[in-house]
Structure formats: C-alpha cells, structure tokens
Amino acid sequence: MRRLAQDIAIPKGVKWGYFSTIAKNKEIKGARMEPLAGLKVVEMGQLIAGPFAAKTLADFGADVVKIEPPKVGDALRKWRLLKDGTSVWWQVQSRNKRSLSLDLRQTDAQDIVRKLATEADILVENFRPGTLEGWGLDPEKLLELNPKLIILRISGYGQTGPYKDKPGFGVVAEAMGGLRHLTAEPGRVPVRVGVSIGDTLASLHGVIGILLALQERHRSGKGQVIDVALYEAVFNCMESLLPEYSAFGEVRQAAGSALPGIAPSNAYQCADGGYVLVAGNGDSIFKRLMKLIGREDLGNDPELENNDGRVKRVQELDQAIGKWAKAITTDKALELLDSVSVPAGRIYTVADIANDPHYRARENIQTIQMRDGSNLEVPGVLPKLSRTPGSIKTLAPTIGQNTDEILKEIGLNDSQITSLKERGVAFTQ
Fold this sequence. Notes:
Layout: H1 3-7, H2 17-24, E1 40-44, H3 49-59, E2 63-68, E3 82-83, E4 86-87, H4 90-93, E5 97-102, H5 107-119, E6 122-125, H6 131-134, H7 139-145, E7 150-155, H8 170-176, H9 179-182, H10 197-220, E8 225-229, H11 230-235, H12 241-248, E9 265-269, E10 275-279, H13 283-292, H14 296-299, H15 307-312, H16 314-326, H17 330-339, E11 344-346, H18 350-354, H19 357-361, E12 365-369, E13 375-379, H20 403-409, H21 414-422, E14 426-427
Parallel strand pairs: 1-2, 1-6, 2-5, 6-7, 7-8
Antiparallel strand pairs: 3-4, 5-14, 9-10, 10-11, 12-13
Helix pairs in contact: 3-10
C-alpha cells in the first residue's frame, strides 16, 4: 500500500464532516432545506462543462468539493474580464463550492481522491477520455470502492467511438452537432453562438443524467457511469434535422433570423433602426397579426390558414410585416403587438437585461458582496422551485481555500497536511 493510503485511513466513525451536520439538521444557517442537501459531490476538471454541472448541483444544496491544480487553479479564473486578478465569471461558475487544491499527477493526491470518492455520492469529471485511468482512478475501480457512486463523465466525443481520443472543445462540438451550419445568413460564413452553448448543453444533459441515476439508485442501491459527449448534447437539440434528411434527403440550410419551416417568425427592422422579433406562426395569432398590420386579406386567405401553407408564401408574409414595422418605432411596434397578444420582443443587450423589471421581479439578477466589499450582480438560481428553491450561499473560493478543512474531514491531522503541502501535493493560496 502507498504511504498516504495508510496515513489517511479514515478512523471509525469519522465522516465527511459537513454532511453529518446536514443529516442532523433540517435547516442550514437559517435557510430552508434545499433539494440536494446531503449529497456529496467531487468535481474534477476545469473550465465549463463539468464545473457548470457541479455548479447547478451546488446551487441546490449539494456540497461540491472542487479539485483544482496548485497555484494556478482552474483556468476559468483567468478567462474573460478580471477583477482583482480573477474572472468575474468565476463568481458564477464556482459559487457554493469548496476548493481543494491537489497535484493529481502525484500518487498521494490520487489517494486523497479515492478517499473522497469512497464517501461521495457523485463524481463529476470532464477530462479527455483515459485521463482518470492514467491516474489509476478508473470508474470501475472507484465503483469497487463505493458501489453507490454516480460518475458523470463529460468529454468532446464520449468515452467510446473512433473519435474518443481527439481533443474536443465546445466550438467543435457545436459544429459537429449540426448547430454551426445553421447559424448564418444564407450564403455567408456560419458564425458561432457568442457563448459556450455546447458546453452548457452538455452540462445540463449531465445534470439530467445524475438525477436519473439518483432516482434509479433509490431502487437498486447502485451507482453507475454517465457518459455525455458535447457534440451529442448539441445534436439532441437539433429538432427534426435528421428525420427530414432521412425522409426527404433535405439538408436544412442557414436561414438568418428566420425559423425555417415555421411562418411567420422573423426579425423586422423598425423606423428607428431597431428590430422587433415577431412570432406569428400560431394559426389564431397569425389572423390577429394580419388584422393589426392592415392585411386582413392575408389573414382570411384559406391558403394561409395553416403553417404549411404560410411556409410556401413566407417571403410575401415577411414583406408585409416588414413594411408595417418599417413605418413605426420599435417601442410602438411592441406596444401594438402586445395589445393584440402577438408574441414579440426586442433584441436585448446585457444592458437591457440588467435594467429589465421582469428580470428583477423574478430574481434572475442577484447581488453578491465581494471580499473587498464591492457589489457584483450575477445570474440567479434556476430552475425555480416553489418549496425548496436553490440559493447562493457562498462566494466562489480562492485556490485551495478549503484544502485544510477537507483533508481533516477525511481523517488527516495537521502534521500530515503540512507534509502534503511541503511536498507540493496539496496547496492553499
């Protein structure tokens, strides 16, 4: 046995401390019990997909121990705009988590992961396939130590198949999943969605998988491995793309601001240069829209009564709506469309979002106080539960902020922790 494996043998009765407290108390720090309270989660990996999944679990009460490399931490700490040397994105992605900083290349650090996995309910990782195996942390071996463990593995191409060893990032997944081809103006170079949508979709599929596995564990008492590929998560959201190709040989093409096969649904420029988005594709909605724009002839046309007929004449409909919109301001267009219950909206910037009363009323924007005393607005917790909602409980941690407490929870004493730090196995900023 390795030295550390002997050193950190958990004394009888010693548990991952935070959770034994939760189990005894219905409430934590005065807050109502959250739906995932009591679940122990180990997060391994960096950046977006795996950490976003773990963030979602943490928002709803799970105790997430995030393992970060020493000194530099998760690469996301340096992405996008920085405040006092750390990305403000970090405050969203890693809120409610505890940071344990380990050099996973060292066997002693790998032994610590095994101890954590033995006590954990869930392990989340988004390394390239084979990385865990290279550290001797194969899911099969972890499940032998803890048969109830649920392991979420997120990667670019999945754990099997001819592409599994290729590096996979969200931008590649979005292209392979079919999304990138459609996000363009006809005849122009496809553009990327301006956020890491592939990673986020994979994260949400991962969370769904975890919840399914937890439900199944109630019956069997056994954990399992969840294999999520970024490209598959994107592909799963591509609607009728494949059936249309299979049935008709149809390859859906980029359609700019319109929604192919659904009419009318587009963005129309107004007199002030702004755009109004109009979704007039419901049958009764279409009639109300045509009456509003003074084209009752189109609204009463039997050929346009259903969507399939309107699709055939979509250019005519877009021209009619566009002519109406061009004569009035964006605000006026929205006012009139709202008055007849036609779904419509403007194209929001983040400034529009930050100042929108509906966002505020639904607590989609929350204010946290940073360590320097300054305030920072961040997205609220979603989805919204009526009886056991999630919450923002703690700021995102500094690198290794919780290293000492976590190592003590698995049975190490002060001298053992000091030794780990001196040898570069563990780290606290």
